[in-house]
Amino acid sequence: FLSLSISHFALLIDLHFVPHHLKFFSEKGSCDVLLKFACWSSYQTEAMSCGLSSAGGLIALLGDEDPQIKTYALERLDEVVNEYWTEISEHISRLEVLYEDDGFDKRELAALVVSKVYYNLGSFDDALVYALCAGDLFDVTKKTSYVTTLISKCVDKYVEYQAVKGDKPALFAGSASPADAFERLTGVINRLFDLCIASKKYHEAIGIAFETHRLDVVRRCITLAPDMHKTLDYCYQVAVSLADNWQYRNDILAVLAPLFQNLESPGYLSMCNCYIFLQNYNGLAGMLDGLAKSKEDEKQTHHDRVIAYQVAFDLYNSTSQAFCTDVTSALRTMSFRETQTTSSAPSVDGNEVTMTTAEASGDSDSAPKTADEHPPADVASPSDGYKEAMDKVIKILSGQHTVDLNLQFLVRANHSDLLVYRHIKDSVRDSICHNAAIIANGFAHCGTTSDVFLREDLEWLGQASNWAKFTATASLGVIHKGHVSEALTLLSTYLPAEGGSTNSYQDGGGLYALGLIHANHGSAVVDYLCSKLGDNFEDEVVQHGACLGLGLACLGAHRIDVVGYLKSSLLRDLAVIGEAASMAIGLVMTGSMDEVVLRELLNYADS
User: Fold this and answer.
1) Residue 481 confidence (pLDDT)
2) What is the spatial distance between Cα 494 and Cα 487, in angstroms, rounded to a whole number?
3) Helix or strand or coil: residue 574?
């Protein structure tokens, strides 16, 4: 029997002859173990050298009662499944039965072979189910099309499952899916992460972690990366540009913000951007407060305060009035507490910090003075520049510095040619061109405070009537945009008088111009505009201008009290006033996502 050639031996296997003879030898007690081992060793050696022409013999061995023979057959089928998957697929049920046999030790190997067969059949979901059943035998480190495709399917399935809110459905349909399918899927994803990290492919791991919503892996990759600052910047860019929804983006940024703080050289500007997206004004205020405080190193103190000023400028230029106001309020509270703490600091007596009875009772006048009354080194003092730095930060957040600098630049850089506009003026023959010339002049001189053209030709300007006069007057607000310190003086001629409006279109345009001058930083004129809104209740044009001016002055301020004034005008059901009031409400509540105000506007529109 052992002298049979390899061709005859393969034929015997295909005819299911060998298992019967092995059984015969076993029943006769003729050195069965040795014979089996010799047969299969001979077959394996010669078959590997000559190559198989069919998987039929290996499939036949799956019916043997000996687990070792079944294991051998599965191992060989795993090696040749990509060549003979068409033949194996006809007997796939036998492989599935082996996997479902809890008493079979190599059931995971059977699942792997089934998975590869389904993969070649193009049934990727079934292939993924059995790959998960294969456990650690599904090797994610192999660079084969089978592994690559199923890993991609794993990531897609994991993302899909993670996105489901509430009660989660079964991960896979069908009885073959294991009860702990999600845990197995998570295990594959974790092995993929471990492989990327071990290979130092941190950006690749972070990309998969973002897609699978695994922020724990993001944090792990950032801390392990050799260039933590560069990796954090990469994560920030991915979060703000590729995150699929704002809530998940904010979850990512909430992880990144403290990591920027822990850098050897903290990324304060990046932290600022994170807090802006998160609308975390307390976090920003705390960061600015920490930068403003004195440090042991004077150079470090100066550096940190310069960073605080830069952050404040960026904050004003990239956020709404409401957010800047919230940050300013938090800073004022922190500054007040710090000042109170410093002013009530205990006196120093030798090496011990003591407090006298008079100081404890709050009677500072009766407390004895010592020759050396310096606060401890770790307590900030108003005299060390902290209060001055905080005042500068608050002033920057108010927009005063930015507005003044913009105004100075535009005044210096004004190179408009007045001869062009005078030529246009002389060529105008109708009211439409007259109005267009005034608007063009306003745009050309926006923010430059140069109203020479209008003031030199007041008689020509006076030719405008009705809404053209409203627009002409409002163009002064465009020209003087940002000139907040002299706004009321410049527009005094065009604003409503105390006794009532003399020219509705001029007065309405004047109120609109006042809002244009104070656009996005109009806290100083809000009360004035609200009062004019109430004083001229019967004048639709003045109310129109007051509403527009109020909306611009409170742009993004999210002030519900101002919205109340505007709603009173809106509910009068007058077209001229209602148009301006509705636009103004939108300007005031820009970016607030206030559902109450939105619902009220929709209900009014539907009524």
Assistant:
1) 93
2) 11
3) coil
